Amino acid sequence: MNELKSTMAGTVFTVDVTAGDEVAQGQAVIVLESMKMEIPVEAEKGGKVKEVRVDVGDFVNEGDVILTFE
């Protein structure tokens, strides 16, 4: 399974994709907020989003799976 993991701990500020969306490598898919800074999480490769595992307001730790690709 192709997974995108959080690169840091923080609160999900925005979710910019939904299941079924096509994303390109380097596209910001989630924005995390930590210490009043907004940090985009980018897709490591292109593909179709299978499942988004976080919602706005969720807290994630570094390494948590935030979405999966088909």
Distance between the termini: 7 Å
Q: What is the average of the pLDDT values? A: 95
- DSSP summary: helix tally: 0
> Are there runs of 5+ residues with pLDDT below 50, and where?
none
Organism: Edaphobacillus lindanitolerans
Protein name: Acetyl-CoA carboxylase biotin carboxyl carrier protein
Keywords: Biotin
Pfam family, one: Biotin_lipoyl
What attributes does this structure have?
70 residues; OB fold (Dihydrolipoamide Acetyltransferase, E2P); four-stranded antiparallel β-sheet; mainly beta; 0% helix
Task: Tell me what the structure shows.
It holds the Pfam family Biotin_lipoyl. By secondary structure, this protein is mainly beta. The protein has a single domain, classed as RNA polymerase II/Efflux pump adaptor protein, barrel-sandwich hybrid domain (OB fold (Dihydrolipoamide Acetyltransferase, E2P), Beta Barrel), CATH 2.40.50. The protein is built from no helices and eight strands. The strands form two sheets. Strands 1-8-6-3 form a four-stranded antiparallel beta sheet, with no helix packed on it. Strands 5-4-2-7 form a four-stranded antiparallel beta sheet, with no helix packed on it. The chain is globular and about 30 Å long.
